[in-house]
UniProtKB/TrEMBL annotation:
Keywords: Iron. SMART domains: FeoA. This is FeoA family protein. One of its GO terms (molecular function) is transition metal ion binding.
Length: 107
């Protein structure tokens, strides 16, 4: 990740490790027992741990409020459709492709 991305979103050095470029493994997330959001059952409350993907995907996730540390509830997760999430009192729907770029852990 480029330092300019971290600086743009006001991330301190301690949080920069939570954002990884496309194809980069994040062993820190895996050690914390995190899973991809698309694998979480409906009704579960989780906390965002890490975001993966290119800058466009990460920017889109950040704009939707899906930032590391954020608490969210999975309202609907059918096996083949988009996910319905509750974030900060609002509901939003994201596709499975974006959900696969978010690692979460139990809240």
């Amino acid at each position: 990740m480029h330092n300019t991305f971290a600086m743009k979103f006001g991330l301190d050095r301690g949080r920069r490790h939570m954002f990884h470029g496309h194809g980069h493994r994040n062993h820190h997330c895996q050690e914390m027992g995190s899973v991809v959001l698309s694998g979480v059952d409906a009704g579960s409350s989780v906390r965002v741990v890490c975001l993966f993907g290119g800058q466009d995907a990460k920017r889109k996730l950040l704009d939707m409020g899906l930032v590391p540390g954020e608490l969210l509830k999975v309202v609907q997760n059918d096996s083949d459709g988009p996910l319905l999430l509750q974030v900060q009192g609002s509901r939003l729907m994201i596709g499975r492709g974006l959900a696969d770029k978010i690692r979460v852990a139990a809240a």
